[in-house]
Amino acid sequence: MSLIKLVWPEEYEDYKVVQVKFDNRSAFLFGNPWKYDEVLQGYILRNFLMGEGITYEPVFGRLSGENIPKISGERYQVLGMGQASIMPEDKTANFFGSSGDYGIGLDQNQLYQLRKQEKDWKIEIPRIVRLF
């Protein structure tokens, strides 16, 4: 089992989350709720792929109609999407929700893997993942 790449947000807030596997690695991506280009999960994924030099095929989001990356490509696969309430002072992360544009929820297997990896954080995992 390889480590999941992530950087915990430093502010108490609700963040959009993208769980992605790329080049045989895994990452948790947190959007910045104060930046327009990180409001949608598709934007978060697009920014990440561009930063990694990974090309993607664009599609239109199911709800937003925005131009966003396809859910998978030659070098990447989205595992899940949703949101997380992050409380850095308490080292607590409460994951919930799903993506309306992609019609998928959070990947529970990766959340359990994250819980094992980040032993000093309290990771709350939803019992039922709501899908669109």
Task: Please provide a written account of the structure.
The chain is an alpha+beta fold and 132 residues long. It has a single domain (4-124), classed as Janus/Ocnus (Pyruvoyl-Dependent Histidine Decarboxylase, Chain B). 16% of the residues lie in helices and 36% in strands. The chain has two helices and ten strands. Strands 1-3-2-6-7-10 form a six-stranded mixed β-sheet. A two-stranded antiparallel ribbon has the order 4-5. The longest helix has 11 residues, at 41-51. The chain is globular and about 40 Å long. The chain starts with a strand and ends in an 8-residue tail after the last strand. 32% of the residues are buried.
Distance between the termini: 30 Å
Q: Biggest sheet: strands side by side, in what order?
A: 1-3-2-6-7-10
CATH homolog superfamily: Janus/Ocnus
Cα Rg: 14 Å
Q: Helicity range of the residues?
A: 10-25%
Q: Label the structural class.
A: alpha+beta
How many domains, as an integer?
A: 1
Number of strands: 10
What pattern of helices and strands is seen along the backbone?
Answer: EEEHEEEEEEHE
Topology:
Elements: E1 4-5, E2 13-22, E3 25-30, H1 41-51, E4 58-60, E5 67-69, E6 76-87, E7 92-96, E8 98-99, E9 104-105, H2 108-117, E10 122-124
Parallel strand pairs: 1-3, 7-10
Antiparallel strand pairs: 2-3, 2-6, 4-5, 6-7, 8-9
